[in-house]
Write a structure and sequence with these properties.
Helix content is 20%, strand content 23%. By secondary structure, the chain is of the alpha+beta class. The radius of gyration is 52 Å and the shape is rod-shaped.
C-alpha cells in the first residue's frame, strides 16, 4: 500500500515537472521570438552617403554652391564658382548648362534672387577682382559694379534685402577696400560706408534691429590691432559699432532671437579666437573661446525643440562646436582637421525629426553629425573642403542631395542611402539662405525668415497660399509665382496643379489659346495643350462657348458630319441630326446617299415645291426640281390635285395637267385626273377638238348630234308605226264585234 502510494506520488511529481518544463520552454520560445521580431521592427538601417556625381572644374572649389530652378524648367540647377575664374551652372544630373567667365578666382558664394522683379532670377557673384557681377538666368551679364576703388580684392558674398522698405531690393557687399557698398536693383550706387578698416570677406547680415521697418546692415571688418562689428542704417549711417578684438575678420555675422525673448541677437566670430554674441543695441551678451582664429561663420537652429536656438560654428582647432543660446557649451565634434572657412549646414537629412549638422574640414571629409554631436557618416573628397554645402532635393524624390566643393577641383553631389524622406532644413546653405541675409529659414521653405517679410509670406508656414507649393519654390523660380495667390493666372487650377499634375503654364490661363481656360479644359476632359482636342477643326473653346458641341466628340449629333463641317462648310446645326427636320439626316442631304440627291440640309423643301425632301423621295420626284415632269405644275400642287407629279398628262387625255388646270389655249379648266371631265363619254381633248364644252355633258360634238337626231327620227317613226299598227288591230277587232 505504501509502495503504491509512493509510486503515485513519484508519477505525479514527474508529470508536474514535465508540464512545467514544457510550459516554460514555450514561454521562452515566445520571449525569444518576440525579441527577434522587436529587433527586426525597431532597429533601422543606418543612414549612409556616397557620390552620385561630380563635376570637374579648372580649379579648387572653395565657393559654396547655390541650388535653384534657374530657368523655370522644373529641374534644379547648381551654381558654383571655381578658382579657374568661372561661375558654373550645372544641371541636376551633373551636366554643364553654361559657365560665366569672370576676371578672378571665385571664393564667394553666389546669391540668387529676382532682383528687378521681372519674374526671372538673377545671380550675383563677387570674384577676386574689382567687380560685383549680376548675371541673368541664361549666363549673360546684366550689369557689373566696381567694388574696389583702391584695387584690393577679397570681397564678401552679396546679401540682398529691401533695406529702405521701398518695395525694391538692394544689394549689400563688403570689400577689402574698406567700404560697405549698397547698390540698387539696377546696379547703381545708393550709398557706401567707409569702415576705416578692411571688410574682407565678411558677408553682411540684415535685420530690423530697432523695429522701425527699415533694415540695419551688419558686417565685420578690422583695423590694425582691432576688429569691429559695424551696424549701419538704411541710408548708410553708423548706428553702432562693437569692438571684437585683434585680427582679421573673414567670418560673416548671423542674426536670430537666440533666447526667444522677442529681441534679436547678432553672432560673429573673430580672429582673436572668440565667438561674440551682441544684442540689438550693440551691447555685449556673451562670448565663447573657440580657440585659435575663427574663419567659419555661425549657424543656428533649435536642435532640441525647446524653443531656443543652438549655435554651431567650426574652428581652426578642428572641432565643430555646438553652444546653447546663452553661450554655454553643449557638445563638440572633432573633425580631424581645421574647418577654416567651411561653415555648418543644419537639416533633417533622414526625416527622423531630428537635425543633422554638415561641415567640411581640412581632413578632406564632409562630416555628418547628429544633433547630439555623434558622427553619423562622413564622405571623403580628394582635397581640403572650405566650401559650405547646400542640401536640396535635386531629383525630386523627397530625399536631399548634398552639394559641396573641394580643393580636388570638383563639385560633389552626394546621395543618401537608407532614407525614405528628408525633413526640415532651417539653415540649408552658407549664410542661411539663397538671399544671404544671415537668417535661418524657420519653416524650411527656402525663404529665410527676414526675406519672408519682403514677400509678405509667413515665416512659420511654408505654404502661405495653401496651394501645396512652398513659398520659396514659388519665389525662386523663373518666372516667379505669387506665393500669396494659389492661382496666379486665375484659370481655376492651383499653381501646384498646373506645375505638378497637368504641366500647364501657371502664368498663362489658356495654354493652347483656344479660348477655354486650362481649369475648364480639365473639367471638360480636354487637353489644355491641344486647342482642338477631338481634331475635327473647331477650337475647344468655340465648341464649349459658341456652338455647345462636345469638344471630345468630333460629331456631336452622330450624323456622320463632323462638327466643323456642319459649322464651317454646311452651316448646319452640329447638335441636330436633321437640321431642317425633313426626315433626312444632314449627312444624307449633303451627299448622294441612298436617294442619289444632294439636297439642302437647311431647308426641308430644297426645291420649294411644297413637298419636303423626304416626301419627294417617297413620291419618287426630284427634290431638287420643283416640277419633276416639267408640266408647269409644281410637284406639291400635283400631289394636292391628285395628279401624277411624274407625268405631264396624268389622265392620258392628251391635255397637259397644267393646261387642264388653267383656262389655257382651249379656254377650259378641266379635271386633270379624268380624261372625260364631264363624263359624257367623250374625252376632253376630243370635245375641245370638236369645239364643244368638255365640262358640259350636254354639249357633244356635231357628229354626235347628227347621229342622235337620226336615231331619234327612227325611234319616233318606229313608235308611230307601232301605234298605227296597234290602232288598225283595235279597229279590226272592234268591227268584228259590231
Amino acid at each position: 500500500m505504501i509502495r503504491a502510494k509512493t509510486s503515485v506520488i513519484i508519477l505525479t511529481l514527474f508529470l508536474s515537472i514535465y508540464m512545467f518544463a514544457s510550459s516554460n520552454t514555450a514561454t521562452l520560445d515566445m520571449v525569444c521570438n518576440d525579441n527577434l521580431e522587436s529587433e527586426n521592427q525597431f532597429i533601422p538601417a543606418a543612414m549612409s552617403a556616397s557620390l552620385e556625381w561630380s563635376y570637374l572644374t579648372g580649379g579648387d572649389v572653395y565657393s559654396s554652391p547655390a541650388v535653384v530652378d534657374l530657368d523655370g524648367d522644373g529641374a534644379l540647377e547648381v551654381l558654383v564658382g571655381s578658382h579657374d575664374d568661372k561661375l558654373y551652372c550645372i544641371n541636376h544630373t551633373g551636366g554643364l548648362e553654361w559657365f560665366y567667365q569672370t576676371g578672378g578666382d571665385i571664393y564667394s558664394a553666389p546669391t540668387v534672387v529676382d532682383l528687378d522683379n521681372d519674374g526671372m532670377l538673377e545671380v550675383l557673384v563677387t570674384p577676386d577682382e574689382y567687380f560685383l557681377h549680376c548675371i541673368n538666368h541664361t549666363g549673360g551679364l546684366e550689369w557689373k559694379y566696381n567694388i574696389s576703388v583702391d584695387g584690393t580684392f577679397y570681397p564678401s558674398s552679396p546679401s540682398v534685402g529691401d533695406i529702405d522698405d521701398d518695395g525694391t531690393l538692394e544689394v549689400l557687399v563688403s570689400s577689402a577696400d574698406s567700404y560697405l557698398y549698397c547698390l540698387n536693383h539696377t546696379g547703381g550706387l545708393e550709398w557706401q560706408f567707409l569702415t576705416g578698416s578692411t571688410a574682407r570677406t565678411s558677408t553682411p547680415a540684415l535685420a530690423d534691429l530697432d523695429g522701425d521697418d527699415k533694415l540695419e546692415v551688419l558686417t565685420g571688418s578690422y583695423r590694425t590691432g582691432t576688429d569691429y562689428l559695424y551696424c549701419v542704417n538704411y541710408t548708410g549711417g553708423l548706428v553702432w559699432q562693437y569692438t571684437l578684438g585683434a585680427g582679421v575678420i573673414v567670418t560673416s555675422p548671423a542674426v536670430g532671437d537666440l533666447d526667444a525673448d522677442g529681441t534679436l541677437e547678432v553672432l560673429i566670430g573673430s580672429d582673436d579666437g572668440n565667438l561674440y554674441c551682441v544684442n540689438h543695441t550693440g551691447g555685449f551678451e556673451w562670448q565663447y573661446p573657440v580657440v585659435n582664429f575663427v574663419e567659419s561663420s555661425p549657424a543656428m537652429a533649435d536642435l532640441d525643440g525647446d524653443g531656443k536656438l543652438e549655435v554651431l560654428i567650426g574652428s581652426n582647432n578642428n572641432p565643430l562646436i555646438c553652444l546653447n543660446h546663452n553661450g554655454t557649451p553643449r557638445w563638440s565634434y572633432p573633425t580631424g582637421g581645421i574647418t577654416s572657412t567651411a561653415s555648418p549646414v543644419i537639416a533633417d537629412l533622414d526625416g527622423d525629426d531630428s537635425f543633422e549638422v554638415l561641415i567640411g574640414s581640412a581632413d578632406n571629409y564632409l562630416h555628418c553629425v547628429s544633433h547630439l554631436g555623434a558622427l553619423e557618416w562622413q564622405y571623403l573628397t580628394g582635397g581640403v573642403i572650405r566650401s559650405t554645402p547646400q542640401v536640396a532635393d535635386l531629383n525630386n524624390d523627397g530625399v536631399f542631395e548634398i552639394l559641396v566643393g573641394s580643393a580636388d577641383n570638383r563639385l560633389h553631389c552626394i546621395e543618401l542611402h537608407e532614407v525614405a524622406a528628408s525633413g526640415a532644413a532651417p539653415w540649408y546653405r552658407f549664410h542661411g539662405s539663397l538671399f544671404m541675409t544671415g537668417w535661418m529659414d524657420n519653416d524650411s521653405d527656402l525663404l529665410d525668415d527676414l526675406t519672408e517679410s519682403f514677400y509678405g509670406t509667413s515665416a512659420t508656414n511654408s505654404d502661405s497660399d495653401a496651394d501645396t507649393l512652398s513659398d520659396g519654390f514659388e519665389v525662386l523660380r523663373s518666372p516667379a509665382l505669387d506665393p500669396l495667390d494659389p492661382d496666379c493666372d486665375d484659370d481655376f487650377l492651383t499653381d501646384a496643379e498646373e506645375i505638378l499634375t497637368y504641366h500647364t503654364n501657371p502664368h498663362d490661363p489658356d495654354c493652347d489659346e483656344d479660348s477655354l481656360l486650362d481649369g475648364h479644359e480639365i473639367d471638360w476632359g480636354t487637353d489644355p495643350w491641344d486647342d482642338d482636342s477631338d481634331d475635327e477643326g473647331l477650337l475647344d473653346g468655340a465648341e464649349v462657348h459658341t456652338h455647345g458641341t462636345d469638344p471630345l466628340n468630333p460629331d456631336s449629333d452622330s450624323d456622320t458630319l463632323s462638327d466643323a463641317e456642319e459649322v464651317n462648310v454646311y452651316g448646319t446645326n452640329p447638335l441636330a441630326f436633321d437640321s431642317d427636320l425633313d426626315g433626312l439626316s444632314d449627312f444624307e442631304e449633303v451627299t448622294d446617299g441612298f436617294d442619289g440627291y444632294q439636297t439642302n440640309p437647311l431647308s426641308a423643301d430644297s426645291d420649294s415645291d411644297g413637298l419636303s425632301d423626304l416626301e419627294e423621295i417617297a413620291y419618287g420626284t426630284d427634290p431638287l426640281d420643283s416640277d419633276s415632269d416639267a408640266d408647269n405644275l409644281s410637284d406639291g400642287i400635283e400631289i394636292a390635285l391628285g395628279t401624277d407629279p411624274l407625268s405631264s398628262d396624268s389622265d392620258g387625255d392628251g391635255i397637259g395637267d397644267y393646261e387642264e388646270t388653267v383656262e389655257g389655249s382651249d379656254g377650259y379648266i378641266t379635271d386633270p385626273t379624268r380624261s372625260d371631265s364631264d363624263r359624257d363619254g367623250i374625252d376632253d381633248l376630243e370635245e375641245i377638238d370638236n369645239g364643244t364644252d368638255p365640262t358640259n355633258p350636254f354639249d357633244p360634238p356635231s357628229a354626235y348630234t347628227s347621229g342622235l337626231a337620226f336615231g331619234l327620227a327612227i325611234g319616233v317613226a318606229g313608235i308611230f308605226v307601232t301605234l298605227l299598227a296597234g290602232a288598225l288591230v283595235i279597229r279590226r277587232e272592234f268591227g268584228k264585234q259590231v
